[in-house]
Amino acid sequence: MSVQKSKEILADLIAFETVSADSNLDMIGYLTQRLEALGARCIETRDETGKKANVFATLGPDMPGGILLSGHTDVVPVADQDWTSDPFQVTERDGKLYGRGTCDMKGFIAAALAFGETLDASKLTQPLHFAFTYDEEVGCLGAQTLVNDLSERGIVPDIAIIGEPTEMRVIEGHKGCFEYTTRFTGLEGHSSAPDDGVNAAEYAARYIGKLLELRHILKSRAPTDGRFEPPWTTVNIGQISGGVAHNVIASKAEVAWEMRPVQASDADLVKSTLADYVEHSLLPAMQAVHSESSITQKAVAEVEGLEPMEENAARDLVAELTGANGTGVVAFATEAGLFQKLGVHAIVCGPGSIAQAHKADEFLEIEQLDLCCRMLNRLGRRLMG
Ligand SMILES: [Zn+2]
């Protein structure tokens, strides 16, 4: 497979303006058409608006397992960024391909598709799957829908390679990212009679106190061999708002917070501790004064972490294919953790650097694309038995 073919496909992909806020249906249509032309069996899943879609495609034998190449189709906005050239048109300068999404992560999608087009599907000894998803940049929403669908269908690939930009390094771990907005509704009143009202701001403060207590517990639970920086699950209170004036009992308050778990059990602990605290302590106290008081929580994002595993067939395979003599962990969250939760051995490995992602003049070095093509070509020889 040539880099040239990947470059041609990449130029097509960049021209689809798939900023997360907008529809990605045109790009999914393009990918599906090309995949179906290869004889791939495609499954489309959509979000509730119908304007965003995933495509999951399979080449080769109809049997369990196989290898999955996965990437997200959405890109971050270009608004308020100072670009040298049109972000939605690939421009080549000095061995680099410029354009929004070149490194994050349409370069990998282009290489994966170009790779698929070189294969003789009838000679594959195991299935080769492709997953192209929506809304990764706003919380891995598409991958969540896709993974739920695969779980219902009983489709569990053996290995998943998520081609986020790692400069083709093999990444076997990242923290999760769980973001929430918790809303407190109490009862307004005059500040001189605090017992007649329910002060939402005070209950929010107590909730935050519980989160800070948990922070200490989480620190003590850090795995001894942890490679993350810092090696424990972190909690951040990002925004507090509520109330109207000094002398009014605050009837509304809101806390925006997040945690970045290093292990799934930490996320479970935080969620169950808070739920218990709300149900058995805060809410009864609020409702004793005003029965309509409430505490509600909205999950803004729940991106599973990718936990480094002792046994990881994906890591071993890709380390061999790339010749890597070590693996790493990264600070950014990806869709890999969702696939791991499905029971797939997953790693992150793709062309380009995260340092170039999300910025003006995002680029992908052609040399990186070439390395990715070489890795996939070696994979192809493996898939042919
Ligand atoms: Zn990405």
Describe the structure using short key phrases.
elongated; single chain; alpha/beta; 22% strand; binds zinc ion; 385 residues; six-stranded mixed beta sheet; four-stranded antiparallel beta sheet; 9 helices
What can you see in these coordinates?
- The structure is a single chain.
- It is built from nine helices and 15 strands.
- Helix 3 (102-118) runs parallel beside helix 9 and helix 5 (200-220) packs antiparallel against helix 6.
- The strands form four sheets. A six-stranded mixed β-sheet has the order 1-2-6-3-7-14, sandwiched between helices. Strands 10-11-9-12 form a four-stranded antiparallel β-sheet, covered by helices on one side.
- By secondary structure, it is α/β, with parallel strands linked by helices.
Can you write the helix and strand succession as a string?
Answer: HHEEEEEHEHEEEHEEHEHEHEEH
Distance between the termini: 18 Å
* Protein structure class: alpha/beta
Q: Which ligands appear in the coordinates?
A: zinc ion
Largest sheet: 6 strands, mixed
Please bin the fraction of helical residues: 25-40%
Strand order of the largest sheet: 1-2-6-3-7-14
Count of DSSP strands: 15
| Residue windows where pLDDT falls under 50 for at least 5 positions | none
Mean pLDDT rating: 96
What is the overall silhouette?
elongated
Instruction: Give the DSSP E fraction (strand runs of 2 or more residues).
Output: 15-25%
Our Rg estimate from Cα atoms comes to: 24 Å
Number of helices: 9
